[in-house]
């Protein structure tokens, strides 16, 4: 099986670093972006299988990024995991087109299970 590519977009560098470290232990190819303005172009270049995106980001919010990905012929196939501390995060993420939602703060095991399920569904 080819290695899955995961793109992580969160304006909190501590979150992107932690998620990248956890996923590299799972033999997943990761790329991170803390500035949502650059995320779309980087995804076009990287062509990830899975996008992990925060809802609350400055300039371009996570739901705006999700909608742009879903409207793109090159990227609409991506499995999207949305993460957020927002009380209405699940609703916002679902309406934008995310496949699944994880509330912050989250348990690392729960996170890994969600990513593993995403990997299985993108085979």
Automatic annotation (TrEMBL):
SMART domains the record matches: REC (SM00448)
Keyword list, A-Z: Phosphoprotein
The organism's taxonomic lineage, starting at the top: Bacteria, Pseudomonadati, Bacteroidota, Sphingobacteriia, Sphingobacteriales
Residue numbers carrying 4-aspartylphosphate: 54
Matches recorded under PANTHER family: RESPONSE REGULATORY DOMAIN-CONTAINING PROTEIN (PTHR44591:SF3), STRESS RESPONSE REGULATOR PROTEIN 1 (PTHR44591)
Domain Response regulatory, first and last residues per copy: 5-119
Pfam families with a match to the protein in the record: Response_reg
Source organism per UniProt: Sphingobacterium populi
InterPro entries linked: Bact_response_regulator, CheY-like_superfamily, Sig_transdc_resp-reg_receiver
Protein name per the record: Response regulator
């Amino acid at each position: 099986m080819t290695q899955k590519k995961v793109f992580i977009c969160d304006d909190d560098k501590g979150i992107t670093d932690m998620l990248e470290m956890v996923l590299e232990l799972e033999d997943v190819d990761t790329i991170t972006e803390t500035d949502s303005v650059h995320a779309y172009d980087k995804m076009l270049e990287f062509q990830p299988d899975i996008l992990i995106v925060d809802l609350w980001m400055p300039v371009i919010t996570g739901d705006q990024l999700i909608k742009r990905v879903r409207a793109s012929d090159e990227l609409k196939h991506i499995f999207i995991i949305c993460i957020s501390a927002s009380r209405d995060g699940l609703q916002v993420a679902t309406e934008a087109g995310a496949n699944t939602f994880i509330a912050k703060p989250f348990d690392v095991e729960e996170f890994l299970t969600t990513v593993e399920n995403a990997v299985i569904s993108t085979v």
